[in-house]
Write a structure and sequence with these properties.
5-stranded mixed β-sheet; 18 strands; 3 domains; Alpha-Beta Plaits; TIM Barrel; alpha/beta; single chain
């Protein structure tokens, strides 16, 4: 029973009883007066009436106390719900929505602007801390950071804007004081937190923007402070940067893409499209998974616009894990086929890549031998011993490794002697010029012979016509991919094809 219903129930029962007693007392007294013809009312009748009135007063007091108690409890419940709605339960900082409301009040209106400073704080390498030491330490770090901010900025409003990102609103605070406090916060974080008898040093990147100097609208002020924060990260992290107009243009665009992409990953707004890879007889060998981002405002954003930006930060690790998880989930749609996924060289620079593969396979119950990891020539030509070790570790788990876009870089034939790969994908520029370029025909034929000796697969990319298909097959390629067979499409659009309905293939290629 909710509070309002409880109050109504108590009130109805209490007042009905009260009305009954008072009414009964009045009726009894009137009856006695009429029966005795105006004579003196007996003492027992007066006693009854008095008792009834006293009892009615007691009931009235009980009802009043009950209603007050219920209202107090309702008020406390409402305050608790409001507190949970505006306060992060872990850290005690403001929730994002409430913080943005405070920011709006802090900067004032365009015609009546107020002086305010917005400071954004992002904990450096927080994901690695969580992965290495566990979520309990991660939570302790978040609490520690908020306590430090509240102590160093006692006059500021502190809010939690995301997993490891916080904001501080300062009113009428000069910039020199803000910079000094930010430096003190950085020093405090470097002092670290205790974990299992060890001190773990922390670091943060900080960006700040001023109202009305830099912006008068809260959203714009937030964006400019974020640009300054991005500048701190680009400059090596662990520092404070005040916004400057020179930071706009390209950096502003890159930071916008990074933030929007991070949100798209966490809100599962990306798409994974698939393009078939076929054998010489046209039967399906596998598919390549290609990530697509359909932005709610900007429409379809090409991978070339957001992949390099993701690679400039650890966001590429998050994106790579999203792609692999989605591919694992989509495996049942492609029975008997392997799924190829692209792996960035930045991912291979960290041992977390192998840990991620192992974790996702365990969590999804998928098998590594159903996947092909595609790497580019650039990864190979710049590979360190650690990168090669991670590739070998992935192959030992059951993954196959393919060298993608061969011919676009500086990867010579000598690399193919020892490189830990299972397939070579020849760049489309060679495949599409086979009919007129003798050098392309020689290169493709030579690669095919090397692949035969090393028991490697040779995939012809960019097959767009029947002639491309015929010449690539004649040159020695044994697998083929391109618009001639099918364009990249969601798995649902390929379902009939993988169920054996080959009539769907020309439609997909059109």
């Amino acid at each position: 029973m909710n509070t309002l219903a409880s109050i109504r129930d108590h009130g109805r029962r209490g007042y009905l009883s009260l009305q009954f007693l008072l009414g009964g007392s009045a009726v009894a007294l009137a009856g006695l007066l009429v029966a005795d013809g105006g004579n003196v009312v007996p003492s027992w009748a007066l006693a009854f009436c008095l008792a009834a009135n006293v009892l009615a007063i007691l009931i009235l007091g009980y009802v009043r106390r009950t209603i007050i108690a219920e209202l107090d409890r309702a008020s406390a419940d409402a305050e608790e719900r409001q507190h949970r709605a505006i306060t992060d339960t872990l850290t005690g900082a403001m929730m994002r929505g409430h913080f943005l409301d405070e920011l709006k009040r802090g900067v004032g209106r365009p015609l009546e602007p107020r002086q305010a400073t917005l400071v954004l704080v992002d904990i450096d390498h927080f994901k690695q801390l969580n992965d290495s030491f566990g979520h309990p330490l991660g939570d302790a770090v978040l609490v520690h950071v908020v306590k430090a901010m509240k102590r160093i900025f006692p006059d500021g409003a502190v809010g939690r804007l995301g997993g490891d990102e916080f904001g501080i609103i300062l009113r009428d605070c000069d910039i020199q004081t803000t910079l000094a406090r930010a430096d003190l916060l950085l020093d405090t974080l470097r002092g670290g937190v205790r974990h299992e008898n060890h001190t773990i040093a922390l670091s943060a990147s900080i960006g700040a923007a001023l109202a009305p100097l830099h912006a008068t609208q809260p959203k714009e002020l937030m964006l400019l402070a974020d640009v300054a924060l991005y500048e701190s990260k680009s400059a090596g992290r662990g520092r404070m940067t005040l916004f400057d107009k020179g930071m706009l243009s390209d950096k502003r665009h890159r930071r916008f893409i990074e933030r929007e992409l991070r949100a798209a990953i966490y809100m599962n707004e990306l798409e994974l499209h698939y393009q078939p890879v076929v054998n010489s007889d046209g039967s399906v060998f596998g598919v390549e998974g290609l990530v697509r981002w359909r932005h709610s405002v900007r429409g379809l954003i090409p991978p070339d616009d957001f992949i390099p930006i993701a690679e400039s930060s650890v966001l590429i690790d998050t994106l790579g894990e999203w792609v692999f998880r989605r591919a694992c989930a989509d495996l049942p749609a492609f029975p008997g086929c392997r799924i190829s996924i692209n792996v960035s060289g930045e991912q291979l620079k960290r041992d977390e890549f192998i840990s991620m593969l192992t974790r996702v396979l365990d969590e999804t119950g998928s098998s590594a031998d159903r996947f092909v990891l595609e790497i580019t020539e650039t990864v190979v030509t710049t590979a360190t011993a650690d990168v090669l070790r991670r590739l070998a570790a992935a192959r030992s788990m059951g993954f196959r490794v393919a060298l993608d876009d061969f011919g676009t870089g500086f990867c010579g034939f000598n690399y193919l002697k020892t490189l830990p790969v299972d397939a070579i994908k020849i760049d489309k520029s060679y495949i599409q010029s086979l009919s007129e370029d003798e050098v392309a025909r020689v290169l493709v034929s030579a690669l095919a012979q090397i692949a035969q000796i090393r028991d490697l697969s040779i995939v012809a990319e960019g097959v767009e016509t029947e002639l491309d298909f015929t010449l690539a097959r004649a040159a020695g390629c044994n697998r083929f991919q391109g618009y001639h067979f099918a364009r990249p499409a969601p798995k649902e659009a390929l379902a009939h094809f993988f169920e054996g309905d080959r009539d769907r293939l020309p439609a997909l290629a059109s």
